[in-house]
Amino acid sequence: MAAMLSAEQVEGFRRDGFLVVPDFVDAASIAELRTRAVEIVHEWEPTGERTVFTTEEQERTSNREFLSSGDTTWCFFEEEAFGPDGDLVQAKELSINKLGHAMHDLDPVFERFTYTPRLADVAADIGLDDALVLQSMYIFKQPSIGGEVTCHQDATFLYTNPISVVGFWFALEDATLDNGCLWAAPGGHRTGLRQLFKRSGAMTDDDGTVFEVLDPTPLPSPPDDLVPLEVPAGTMVVLDGLLPHWSDANRSGHSRHAYTVHCISAAAEYPDWNWLRRDDGLPLRRLASVAA
User: Fold this and answer.
1) Is 178 exposed, middle or buried (0-12, 13-18, 19+ CB in 10 A)?
2) Could you give the number of structural domains in the chain?
3) pTM of the entire structure?
4) What is the rounded distance in angstroms from the CA atom of residue 286 to the CA atom of residue 130?
5) What is the pLDDT of residues 216-265, one digit of tens each?
6) Domain harbouring 94, CATH code
7) Nearest to 165 by CA among 136, 196, 134
8) Do residues 121 and 3 make contact, with C-beta atoms less than 8 angstroms apart?
9) Cα 66 to Cα 177: distance, rounded to the nearest angstrom
10) 200, HSE (Cβ side, Cα atoms, 13 Å)
């Protein structure tokens, strides 16, 4: 089977911990994914607690909806979506931070986009030839209120032994300095994992979470020691699970839609204290198992 990535690209990924692949997604696929995401938001009506997604205090998102979203599709609001009276300050479709976390297995549009031989080949080229798709997110990065995502390592939140998580991030709109593009620390994946994000207490869907510090060495303080990844729509960015990366708040008048998939090795252990869980009726699937 022919490789999707060149030897130079693979070498760059191993050196830097990230790889930018231009023109990976065609315009038709971008339009289909964006249309479906907006449809999901329009069809979704929150019941009970309206879940806000923030990375400033991860414990604040550790409610029932967040902890049970590993095998469903949930809409998470932007932190600044609500006014002092508790009402949305703008239309619902301009207030959602992200969708997560199982669209790739529950929605035909996201499934078709995710389970492709091309993506499986990219994963194999970087050494993840037995990739399981663990989670998916559609990120809106809304105009004016799109929240910052603090500097982090994906392996903190999606841990396996040995560490194997890789992120595949797809730009569905141009990502710029103005609208909160990704920033990454070249070579930062070689500095080790700083902390783990674990469920605490009884193993139930409404228990809490806690950070366990493994290494007190601070992650880079943005934007120091980070480089911006300004990329046009259609670009795929591959992210090593140990790579420190960040995105700023979006204060511009333009959104920055993106879709991201996180995969892990089928051979690695996935501890049951991870926050993201799946029901036995929705087992993880190999990336190479293309949907019919």
Assistant:
1) middle
2) 1
3) 0.93
4) 7
5) 999 999 999 999 999 999 999 999 999 999 999 999 999 999 999 999 99
6) 2.60.120.620
7) 134
8) yes
9) 29
10) 10
